[in-house]
Amino acid sequence: MSASFLPKRPVITAYPKMPEAFAEAEAMAAFLEEKGIHAPFGSLYDEELRKAVKKGAYDMLIAVGGDGSVLRAGHLCAPSGVPILGVNLGRLGFLIQVDRKEWREYFDKLFSGEAWIENRMMLRAEHIRTDESIGVSKALNEVVVARGQNLRPIRLTASVDSRQLTSYVADGLIASTATGSTAYALAAGGPILPPELRNILLVPIAPHLSVDRAVVLSEGSSVNIVVKSENAVLSVDGQPATPLMEDDQVAVTAADVTAQFVRFGDPGYFYRNITAHMNENSLGFPR
After folding, report:
1. Would the pTM of this model clear 0.85, i.e. be above it?
2. 67, 171, 237, 248: which one is catalytic?
3. Which of 211, 221, 232, 242 is most deeply buried (CB count within 10 A of its CB)?
């Protein structure tokens, strides 16, 4: 656990497709103003606000919304080293510790010096075609090579640190961070990893007569995924898919930037959060 964190120049962002997020953000700004802390607020997609974040105008970003909002905030803030405090207005909130009913209590803790910074690894994914780089993306959750609209499974090979690991016939392959282990990778049957780990997790999606187990790579390892059939796509953190051609490669390594999150209490918050969500999902089922 890092030393206590006390921000001086916060900014508040609201998810634009969630009208109640703006009302909550405005209430937060008024609450902080009463404490003598000026915190501008606006849309997470406002270009002027985003430029100011990138230039280091703020030392903390409060993201009001759901896990998707925090994911987008992570992409915005990580290159500038700006910590994120998520306030959950959504449904799940695996990435978020603070609920909409609790933010006043947590803001008091924050400005009393009771918060700390948690660092989470991000991934760098490079799309390569005939030895040329087509594009580079960063992921907080996962990099996915999957079948497109065609229902047939695709063929892939995966190499780790330039040594072939295995081949897959599957709907796809997920390369996930520990953060992403509670997202798509979990839905595909992967394990839950503690958030501080800097390991890449490989999880096949609906494998057909091929390796059906998740693999946790050693810290610092890189993975190279090669497409061996047509009709594959690349998606990074759920963003719109990019078509892939046969023999295209997707090289995945740890990124050179880290997403920082503002946390409270002991690091065990993560397991309490997970347990709460799992208990919610099991309500109504026979025990």
Report:
1. yes
2. 67
3. 232
